[in-house]
Amino acid sequence: MLGCRDKCKQVEILITIWGLWTARNKLLFEGQSKRPDDVATFVRSYCLELHIIQDRMKPKLHRATYWVAPSLPFVKINFDSHFKQEAFTAVSGVIIRDNNGHSLGARSKMNCHIASSFAAEAHAAINGLQLALDLGFRYVILEGDSLSVIKKLKSEKEDFSEISALIWDAKQLSRAFSLCQFRFTPRDSNKVAHAMAQEWTSSSSEGIWIDGAPESITTLAAADRKQDVPS
Asked: Is the separation of the CB atoms in 128 and 79 below 8 Å?
C-alpha cells in the first residue's frame, strides 16, 4: 500500500506530465511557446488548488457548526477570503470578537496580484493579525477554515511552498503578541468572516470598523452568539 505522501507525490508527477504535454501541444499546434518557469508556476498552482479542494471535501465529523467564544483573556480573530481568479485579486474578511461574542473590530481589504486562493487565505490571516496588533490585543486566537494555511502556521518546519513568504510574515506578526494560537474551524462556524469577504462591494480598497461591524455582519454575529457555547 502506498502511503499518503507517496500518493501525493504521484499526483504531482502526473500533473507535471500533463503540464508539459499541454505546453508541447501549445507549441506544436498554436505556435505558443511556454517558458519553463510558466509551466512550473502552473503545476504548483494546480497542485495547491487541488490540495485545497481535497481539504474542503474531507468529512468534518463531530465539529461545532457554530462559532465558539474564546476564554478570557483571549480574543478570537476569524479570517476568510474571496478570491477573484479572473482579476488576480482577493478580498480579506476579518472580525475580532471577545468572550461574549461582541465585535471589537472588523476589516475588509482588497489585496491585488494574488496568485491563488491559497495565497488569498494567507493574506487574510496576515490582515487579521495586523488588525489585532493595531488595536492592542495581547492574547489572540487566529481561526480560519483553510486547513492548509492553519497547518503551515502551526508547523515549526520551514515552509517551501509558493506562500512561504506570507507564512513567514504571519509567524513574525504572531510573535508580537504575548500569546497567539492558531486554530482550524469549519466554514459553518466561520460564516461571519466569510460574509465580511463576500459582501465588501465598496469602491474603496479597505474598510475598518472599531468596536463594531457593518449592520448585516453584526446581525449574523448576533445569531452566532445566541447559539454559542463558551469554550
From this structure: yes
